[in-house]
């Protein structure tokens, strides 16, 4: 029990160290020897603490390279348990409802807060989707990147925890519905343009239209089956 308690305490100290040093996702933390000396614990305790944080997606252990701050710090790959939902059609519909609630507001915040660098990244993501479409490739992954960058543009720290829900919603929708390529290109361009021009209301409206159109197509496709 004492070892477990000490390991938990060490894990908390390690998280505090990451915060204080403002280590960014992907940053390498000090060696095991350095951390053990810094935190005043034995190596076995430190290893247990690191394993705890790795299980929480705070740290990532790379064999032969060291230990790094996780790219998706504190966020699991499936935070809401979508993998185990058997009714995929219902999941798709309910995810689309959630996206219609939150993503238009995300787009409006992005229009207000995006930096020039982020706008450039968003434009590149939009172009990547279009390139996939032109080449007849699956554009699901590129579409996820587009929506993820919009969420990052809000500069809202809570939004980073919503990104997995957003991107998972994109992939579930894509797997259940034949995607409308032409409309996707048009909608993405409208969203991008509104964000670039800092038109918050237009960005919100463009995102809502994009999602409602997809929702309508989803319902129409289901009714025709």
Automatic annotation (TrEMBL):
InterPro entries: GntR_C (IPR011711), TF_FadR/GntR_C (IPR008920), Tscrpt_reg_HTH_GntR (IPR000524), WH-like_DNA-bd_sf (IPR036388), WH_DNA-bd_sf (IPR036390). Residues 4-72 form the HTH gntR-type domain. PROSITE patterns: HTH_GNTR (PS50949). Keywords: DNA-binding, Transcription, Transcription regulation. It holds the Pfam family GntR. The keyword DNA-binding applies. This is FadR/GntR family transcriptional regulator.
């Amino acid at each position: 029990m004492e070892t477990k308690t000490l390991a938990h305490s060490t894990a908390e100290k390690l998280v505090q160290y990451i915060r204080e040093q403002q280590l960014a996702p992907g940053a390498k933390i000090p060696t095991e020897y350095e951390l053990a000396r810094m935190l005043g614990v034995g190596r076995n305790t430190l290893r247990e603490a690191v394993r705890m944080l790795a299980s929480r997606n705070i740290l990532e252990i790379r064999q032969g390279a060291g230990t790094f701050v996780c790219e998706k710090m504190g966020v699991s790959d499936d935070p809401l348990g979508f993998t185990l939902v058997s009714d995929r059609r219902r999941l798709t519909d309910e995810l689309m409802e959630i996206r219609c609630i939150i993503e238009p507001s995300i787009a409006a915040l992005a229009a207000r807060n995006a930096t020039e660098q982020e706008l450039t990244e968003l434009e590149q993501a939009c172009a990547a989707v279009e390139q996939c479409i032109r080449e007849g490739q699956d554009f699901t992954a590129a579409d996820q990147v587009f929506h993820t960058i919009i969420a990052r543009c809000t500069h809202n720290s809570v939004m980073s925890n919503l990104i997995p829900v957003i991107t998972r919603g994109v992939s579930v929708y894509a797997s259940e519905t034949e995607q409308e390529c032409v409309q996707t290109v048009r909608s993405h361009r409208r969203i991008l343009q509104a964000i670039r021009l800092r038109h918050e209301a237009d960005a919100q409206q463009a995102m809502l239209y994009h999602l409602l159109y997809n929702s309508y197509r989803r319902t129409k496709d289901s009714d025709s089956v």
